[in-house]
Amino acid sequence: MSDVKNVGVIGLGVMGQRMLRLLHNQPVLRATYVWDANPSAVQSTLEAYPELKAAASAADLIQQQGLHSLYIATPPAAHIDLTNQALDRGLAVLCEKPLSTDGAAAKATVERIAASGARTGVNFPLATAQGLSLAESLFGENKPLGVLQNVSVDAAWLQWPRQWQQGAGAWLAERHEGGFTREVLSHFVFAIQRVVGPLTLLQSAATYPEASNLAETDLSARLTATRDNATVSVSIEGHVRGDIPCYNQVRLEGANGTLVLGRWFSEVQVLPRDGSDFPVDKTDRDDLDLASHWAALVDGQPHTLSSYAEALGVQQTIEAMLQGKK
């Protein structure tokens, strides 16, 4: 890999600040320019990181000389336009999810990327998780857990948005761009689709607060996929209720055993059906994993980050679930 890569950051809310901390604490990527529509967010960021420079606008930032990559952490409506501006400049792009709320625009951009070979990725952190690697490798004919048969996702929150997201902006709580299905369940849909391929929606129902534009409080969905020439049944449940701030668990059940992934895949259990032990040498994923894969993206080298095409597939599944199907 070559020298340190210069990164421009657009969007200085919760995720933008998280990424700035990552960029500040590793050796392969360096934030140089920032911009946000909120001047106070820009000012506080410059006070925290005096080495940064503020651009006059998003478009101005993208035109700055010396940039290698753009990180997009705005509300979803701006993602595709900013991506295309960055591609016009020849920059590598890392974008937050959801990819977009405009499916047609996202599809056109995915086609542009495929035709041009542009360097783009979407930040689904589970892409570098050990649990996802295990899910990809443990199931199948002559594999330890056998052919995959069922996948279930269960997630719950005490409130939405979560406490640490309160400064992210009103859009996160609203049904047009926000909600936990787009913001959280999308992570698990990404992981499942990487393991089993495209999902087909069979049934879904979302519950919304009455007389408001607030996002969903409950989501239930049943889907199906095909892997190893066998049908995989998928169930997804998300609810704003309970007595703990956040709970999530994914169970993948095969003919010969089950893989249980809890707490954002940080808790891993392999449970063979015959009751035998299956120890896992746990490797902690950290921010350096994302930084190294991002740097590989910039260099045009192999990485495990989500592609825009994968993120579009996630978006299509998520929006179909929210629309509902009986």
UniProtKB/TrEMBL annotation:
Q: Which InterPro entries match?
A: Gfo/Idh/MocA-like_OxRdtase_N (IPR000683), Gfo/Idh/MocA_Oxidoreductases (IPR051450), NAD(P)-bd_dom_sf (IPR036291)
User: Gfo/Idh/MocA-like oxidoreductase N-terminal domain: from which residue to which, for each copy?
Assistant: 6-124
One MF term from GO for this chain? Answer: nucleotide binding
Task: Identify one Pfam family in the record.
Answer: GFO_IDH_MocA
Q: What is the lineage of its organism?
A: Eukaryota, Sar, Stramenopiles, Oomycota, Saprolegniomycetes
- The UniProt transmembrane annotation reads none
Taxonomy, superkingdom: Eukaryota
Q: What is this protein called?
A: Gfo/Idh/MocA-like oxidoreductase N-terminal domain-containing protein
